[in-house]
Amino acid sequence: MTPSPGRKKRSTILDVATVAGISRGTVSRVLNGEPYVSDEARVAVNKAIKEVGYVPNMAARNLVRQRSQAVGLLIHEPHALFLEDPNIGSIMLGANTVLSQAGYQMVCLIIDSELDVNRIGQYLNGGSIDGAIVISAGENDPITELIEQLAMASAFVGLPPNHRPLPFVSIDNKKAAAEITARLKASGRTQIGMIASALGRAAGADRLAGFEDALGSSYRPELVAMVEHFSFDAGIAGMRELLERCPTIDAVFAASDAVAAGALSVLQRIGRRVPEDIAVVGFDDSVWAQRTNPPLSTVRQPASELGAQAAELVLAQLRGEEINRGGVYLETSIVWRDSA
Amino acid sequence: MTPSPGRKKRSTILDVATVAGISRGTVSRVLNGEPYVSDEARVAVNKAIKEVGYVPNMAARNLVRQRSQAVGLLIHEPHALFLEDPNIGSIMLGANTVLSQAGYQMVCLIIDSELDVNRIGQYLNGGSIDGAIVISAGENDPITELIEQLAMASAFVGLPPNHRPLPFVSIDNKKAAAEITARLKASGRTQIGMIASALGRAAGADRLAGFEDALGSSYRPELVAMVEHFSFDAGIAGMRELLERCPTIDAVFAASDAVAAGALSVLQRIGRRVPEDIAVVGFDDSVWAQRTNPPLSTVRQPASELGAQAAELVLAQLRGEEINRGGVYLETSIVWRDSA
DNA sequence: CGCAAACCTGTGAACGTTCACAGAGGCGTG
DNA sequence: CACGCCTCTGTGAACGTTCACAGGTTTGCG
């Protein structure tokens, strides 16, 4: 039985060398663009490479170099969230652009089940990637633990779980939440509620904290509905809960745009006018925000920039630079549309 | 200068062997769960592995095994599309589940610029992955060409570009489009238009072909607006164009849900009632479809199943099985909601 | 012209695995 | 008892690169 049916036997650097009539070493030098190789040899090698259809074997190269020129993007999200969160796509593209320009391959790894966790562990430490960007890891994440243990080059998008002292890029969720809440208050609303999500994550908890901060003494716990995820469906559930508890509510800060969209759909169904009867604001400024009716007022976060900076952070570590232990915070801004 | 600052030196299989007091070979056998190893040796090895914190080096293993136990998921989408298309996420998850269960690591590679193309080429043929799943490759895609040349295990989601005879999983876009168009016709609409997208891709072209087929002699070319992408914005542009050309239009088949959502937003803005004045249907049954107001009637396609079957197809090839050259078609169904 | 410096090339040794092979014991059976 | 067959183990040779080193040729300059 042939081992890999249909797949041609690959030619090696030695094949190229013999065809070009020179040695391995010189071929390798040409391949890596090193100096000290004659023009004559260079053209011969390039010709031979085409002739035999040579492509370097990464495994061999990685083995001897002890690095892979690849950076992993670890996505550790529950199913539903991964599909709904439009930020993830932007983060991916931002990171990919930076890594690509630096000559690194970005490989994204989805962690979906416990089965995956072990394999990813192997992948991380097995030399297949030189560094990792981690998106939205939950508390007590085994992968996070592993990364810390291995002291591998890494960057988190959002705060690292359990306050581990690992490099990260984030926005100031608390500050941003406080700002948009203050703005709601300033617009004259008096019964301001919040649909708080994902309190198990820093992003979720901080948005609630900012909300509390901004309201200060006028904060009323019964006006906060806690839901599991940053999802549309969670928004529906949260809004229903708030309406039941306080029918006269006149403003809602939803922990994400998707949540806000869900809330909006409930309000529309029962005939409350937005923003006349009740104001709704979201968080993220994702594509959703511009497509609800009315379009959402929300907090804009620079998603692709988050990915890009995370990539830079990893690259800096790979270059051996000392990086800022305190993490990087990017600016947010408020986008005021028609929903409040 | 230390080569990889901060990163610990990894222990090898030899370290494990010496600590356990036995040879490389036996350690390797334990690692790979082979028979013919004494219980005594097994426990000694496992103990030693924990003690020295051993993790196998993938590069070395891949090199000697000539395979990587990883399958690539190539995403070759223009920026915007990638962010909007919710099917991609489902496809990824479907594929990941299957690959994961088979002990394969899924690595997704985003092809975003020409810069990426070369690097991906290396990745494909460099032994980093054993097979590839390709999502929505465009015509004359260099990656597709490469895959065919290398005769590597592969599966396309959607038809392979340029009618290459490569394995694929798809839905029958033409048939599905014809079905939903026929349904519109049967509901008594007389001026049925279409916003056709991405005609450069089989999916786009086939949906238009199905539309034409269903209308037969009543097909009127002036009622078709052609737009570039399957996007919300394209839907806006397409709907405006149709309204201008034929103000009395009373039904629209949009080439995707996102396009339909865009069209809907235009209609709402100018005060046309949906579905009373004009019916709108989409394609995909993505999350968007349930969140427009009114919710969209659309064609449901089994996105995660597409990913799963593509993964199966790749795995079958890796096992050396002969696969069906004709490709696999999955069933679609019509979901009738309130927009038509 | 002589010597050093720059340029170019080939070679052997690594990188960390797996795999095939050989060989050592133990056990059952003719 | 002898032979063969299992069970278990160790060893050397790959896998395809890169890298350091050594050697050879050319160039530049005093």
UniProtKB/TrEMBL annotation, chains A, B:
<dbReference type="GO" id="GO:0000976">
    <property type="term" value="F:transcription cis-regulatory region binding"/>
</dbReference>
<dbReference type="Pfam" id="PF13377">
    <property type="entry name" value="Peripla_BP_3"/>
</dbReference>
<dbReference type="InterPro" id="IPR010982">
    <property type="entry name" value="Lambda_DNA-bd_dom_sf"/>
</dbReference>
<keyword id="KW-0804">Transcription</keyword>
<keyword id="KW-0805">Transcription regulation</keyword>
<dbReference type="Pfam" id="PF00356">
    <property type="entry name" value="LacI"/>
</dbReference>
<keyword id="KW-0238">DNA-binding</keyword>
<protein>
    <submittedName>
        <fullName>LacI family transcriptional regulator</fullName>
    </submittedName>
</protein>
<dbReference type="GO" id="GO:0003700">
    <property type="term" value="F:DNA-binding transcription factor activity"/>
</dbReference>
<dbReference type="InterPro" id="IPR046335">
    <property type="entry name" value="LacI/GalR-like_sensor"/>
</dbReference>
<dbReference type="InterPro" id="IPR028082">
    <property type="entry name" value="Peripla_BP_I"/>
</dbReference>
<feature type="domain" description="HTH lacI-type">
    <location>
        <begin position="11"/>
        <end position="65"/>
    </location>
</feature>
<dbReference type="InterPro" id="IPR000843">
    <property type="entry name" value="HTH_LacI"/>
</dbReference>
